[in-house]
Amino acid sequence: MRKYVAEAFGTFVLVFFGVGSAVLAGSGDAVSITGISLAFGISVVAMAYSIGQISGAHLNPAVSMGALVAGRITTTDFIGYALFQTMGAIIAAGAIYVIATSSVGGYDAAAGMGQNGYGAGYGGEFNIVAAFLFEVIATAVFLVVILGVTAKGGSPVMAGLVIGLTLTMIHLVGITITGTSVNPARSVGPALFVGGTALSQLWGFIVAPLIGGAIGGLLHRSGVTGTEEA
Known about the structure:
This protein has about 230 residues and is an all-alpha fold. The protein is about 70% helix and about 0% strand.
């Protein structure tokens, strides 16, 4: 249970500061795409070095899926991780909602809660094919990096920094395309408070990252992209 609670806390931090940078700081144009990308990346770095020794600091069901496919965790742990990660993300989105709507000027959650999306009226207005493809590719790359840098023969001391910088890189490209998910839990939290289109498109931000995570796990396990697990 300790590791599940750690995952809930870590995912809360990731969503609160990552999504919060867009909703709370970004609402005043104080934070650019680069700033939001760094907020997500730095959050991962902070959690990797603080709770990594407890749970591995997955903070993401897609990362847990990759770890499952790579043979690093059990199915039971995958389910537990995914559930608690999602709980942490929902609580974080709720906290952001309360803070945002407590502004004297008010706040319309439907106008933006850091939700992921695609199509007309969202970001660069990319269609579902582009959005789905980006999420699969980006998540697969993310998992290859995570599994490689944390494998035997990897660089455990530098792992958190490398993983955080990789997530920053992914956000720099993906924010205009989908708002960057690569994390089903991160997508579920804001979507529940926004509703409407965010909820109707949510399936894609659950399925695509999980597929990408599984691909990354398979690539690592095959030895094609990193040290094969013993």
